């Protein structure tokens, strides 16, 4: 199946590991020109060298000029941005009752502000050309808030509401806006959360993972490449009639439709 991504320019935020890397690899395999980005510049360049046509950019999107510098690097290397994959590390775990004002501001600084800025930079060109894809890597917490992840639930839900509003405004211009929500995908982030849960509960990480797998109808954690493949489709030419939608890749974890 040809996804129609050959020659398209894609920025993938926070793509030096985890879910971002999975999407970057999937887009690269489909012939997209990929801008790999993250705070680990050496890793970004290393991964870019493994893809057919890519550059690695060191980028701290929480810095005031971080989004602008990333967008400028993409345009300088490949021209106008066709695909924008929004992604970022989640805030530290914690209960809702323990949320502080500083924590709320940090969640927005990480999960909302840089994403909105990147959209504002890439969207005009997408609209002018009549083609664009904006995809946010979210969390199943958007559909069903996750325990002990209050700040992540807060920030990701705010971004989802913004993007849903945006999707209705850009659909007639050929620009789709969607969210891809992971369940338990075997990444370093999930391993970190399992270790945190193990410490809270007085269990081993292996036992926490075992109990977690038991809640997933598929009976296992997802593989990053499975998530990346779904992401590439949502960014594709074939998905031109899919917009304003959140799609879960979670092995059936969330029990609602």
Care to describe what's here?
Strands 3-2-1-4-5-6-7 form a seven-stranded parallel beta sheet, with helices on both faces. It folds into two domains: 9-183 and 223-245, NAD(P)-binding Rossmann-like Domain (Rossmann fold); 187-221, no CATH class. Helix 1 crosses helix 9. Helix 6 links the parallel strand 5 and strand 6 (175-182). It is globular. The protein starts with 8 loop residues before the first strand and ends in an 8-residue tail after the last strand. The model has no long low-confidence stretch (mean pLDDT 95). With 257 residues, the protein is of the alpha/beta class. The longest helix is centred in the middle third of the chain and has 21 residues, at 150-170. It has nine helices and seven strands. It has helices at 18-29, 41-50, 66-78, 101-111, 113-129, 150-170, 188-201, 205-214, 224-234, and strands spanning 9-12, 33-38, 54-58, 83-86, 132-137, 175-182, 245-249.
The CATH fourth-level homologous superfamily of the largest domain: NAD(P)-binding Rossmann-like Domain
- CATH topology type of the largest domain: Rossmann fold
Q: N-to-C terminal Cα separation, in Å?
A: 27 Å
Task: Return the structural class.
Answer: alpha/beta
As laid out across the biggest beta sheet, the strand order is 3-2-1-4-5-6-7
Q: What is the radius of gyration computed over CA atoms, rounded to a whole number of angstroms?
A: 18 Å
CATH uppermost class of the largest domain? Alpha Beta
Task: List the uncertain runs.
Answer: none
Number of helices, counting only DSSP H or I runs of 4 residues or more: 9
The share of residues in helices is 40-55%
Query: How would you state the average pLDDT, rounded?
Result: 95
């Amino acid at each position: 199946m040809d996804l129609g991504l050959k020659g398209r320019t894609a920025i993938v935020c926070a793509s030096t590991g985890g879910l971002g890397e999975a999407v970057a690899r999937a887009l690269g395999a489909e012939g997209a020109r990929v801008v790999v980005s993250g705070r680990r510049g050496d890793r970004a360049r290393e991964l870019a060298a493994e893809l057919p046509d890519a550059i690695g950019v060191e980028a701290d999107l929480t810095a005031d000029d971080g989004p602008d510098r990333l967008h400028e690097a993409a345009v300088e290397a490949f021209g106008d941005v066709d695909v924008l994959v929004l992604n970022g590390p989640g805030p530290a775990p914690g209960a809702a009752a323990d949320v502080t004002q500083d924590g709320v501001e940090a969640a927005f600084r990480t999960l909302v502000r840089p994403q909105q800025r990147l959209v504002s930079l890439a969207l005009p060109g997408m609209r002018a050309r009549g083609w664009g894809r904006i995809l946010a890597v979210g969390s199943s917490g958007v559909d069903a808030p996750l325990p002990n992840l209050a700040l992540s639930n807060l920030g990701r839900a705010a971004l989802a509401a913004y993007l849903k509003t945006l999707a209705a405004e850009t659909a007639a211009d050929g620009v789709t806006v969607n969210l891809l929500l992971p369940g338990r995908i075997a990444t370093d982030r999930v391993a970190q959360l399992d270790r945190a849960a193990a410490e809270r509960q007085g269990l081993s990480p292996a036992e926490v993972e075992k109990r977690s797998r038991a809640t997933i109808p598929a009976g296992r954690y997802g593989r990053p490449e499975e998530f990346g493949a779904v992401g590439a489709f949502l960014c594709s030419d074939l998905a031109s009639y899919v917009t304003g939608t959140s799609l879960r890749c979670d092995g059936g974890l969330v029990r609602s439709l």
